[in-house]
Amino acid sequence: KDIESEYLTFPEIEEFLNELAAEFPDRVEKSSIGKSVEGRDLIKIRVASNLADTSKPVIWIEAMTHAREWITGASALYTIRRLARQQDREAIDMLDQYDWYFAPVHNPDGYVYSHTTDRMWRKNRKEQNECSWWGCYTCYGTDLNRNWDVSWAGEGTSPYCDHDTYHGVKAFSEPETANLRDAIMSTPNRKAFFSIHSYSELIMIPNGYIRTKPDDYDEVKRVADAAQKALKAIHGKSYRVGTPPDILYAATGGAFDYMRTRDGPNLKWSYTYELRPADAEHGGFVLDTKWILPTAEELFASLNSFAYEIAK
Ligand code: 0X9
Ligand code: ZN
Predict the structure, then answer these.
(1) CATH code (residue 116)
(2) For residue range 56-71, what is the model confidence (pLDDT) as tens digits?
């Protein structure tokens, strides 16, 4: 399958990345940071100009947290391959200056379920047994972007496991979030973090869990504005820039807020994308495959801008 015009299944993604690592053994390293609830590998990809050298600043990118947001995984694969190929000026500069780490499918169980059973599935597939006054029932899934330890179980989350924003039984109750936290926090020289979601065409800046803005809001916003311009230059798309409470909604327990607040001096640069499309009329989570390439090209151009700006 062609990653620029088709959505891959989870086994196809594993195969694609195995082949890519075999094709570029001196630049691409594939490993597992642990297992999902159902026992699938949580894939980690490192793309670097010199795999033996760990002294460069690191950019971490996480995609496919939410099962139905297929464009995020497709765009991550495109980014990984373009960095690995080193065939254009942007990709060469990006690898020259940084080591790139990816969790391209943060939620493999949900992703598989969105292919086999329910295209609109969002959460992971953790089984939960709940009892109330009228009896007991089983339900499935924790929202991985509500499960991180930052004001866990606060605004924008649900205590009910049959809800789409269920926060889980406790912070980091899920192997997907706990393993990704450990993988990122044990990476030396981490500098920036990107959480890739869809849809709405946004680049979001901290804070997402409260309405107060960080002290360096202006600086963080300036860098996002530059990335927004670089993105727009590719196909004319105007992503909006702002904090989640300002341009979407506040929600606690999210990955990018965790990185920013818990890893402050290191991951000062922490952002969340909402990729194409703009709205439900344009497909919502079910983005037509003809938009995979343009969406991925835009993401790449904006990441290039981020990489350039934060190096200054
Ligand atoms: O709700 C989310 O997790 C993200 N939107 S999505 O439609 N892809 O589910 C937005 C997360 C933004 N971060 C915070 N609000 N903290
Ligand atoms: Zn999402």
Answers:
(1) 3.40.630.10
(2) 999 999 999 999 999 9
* Residue 90 known to be catalytic: no
Q: Which domain holds residue 104?
A: 10-311
ipTM of the complex: 0.99
Closest-CA residue to 70 (of 9, 148, 151, 1): 9
* CA of residue 68 to ligand 2 center, whole Å: 8
* Residue 1 maps to a domain: no
Find all residues with CB under 8 Å of 264, minimum gap 6, and list them: none
- pTM equals 0.98
Q: Catalytic one among 62, 174, 176, 274?
A: 274
Cα dihedral 202→208→213→219 (10° resolution): -40
CA distance 141 to 128: 8
Instruction: Compute the distance from residue 22 Cα to the ligand 1 centre, in Å.
Output: 35
Candidates 248, 256, 259, 262: which one to mutate for ligand 1, based on the most atoms within 8 Å of Cβ?
A: 248
Domain membership of residue 141 (yes or no) is: yes
Residue 197 Cα: closest atom of ligand 1: 8
- Out of 212, 274, 279, 286, give the residue to mutate to test ligand 1, the one with the largest number of ligand atoms within 8 Å of its CB: 274
pLDDT tens, position by position, 247-280: 999 999 999 999 999 887 778 899 999 999 999 9
- Number of domains within the chain: 1
Say if 4 falls within a structural domain. Answer: no
Residue 225 lies in a domain: yes
CA distance 267 to 258: 10
The pLDDT tens digits of the residues spanning 142-173 come to 999 999 999 999 999 999 999 999 999 999 99
**The pair of three-digit structure tokens given for residue 10, joined into one six-digit string:** 């989870």
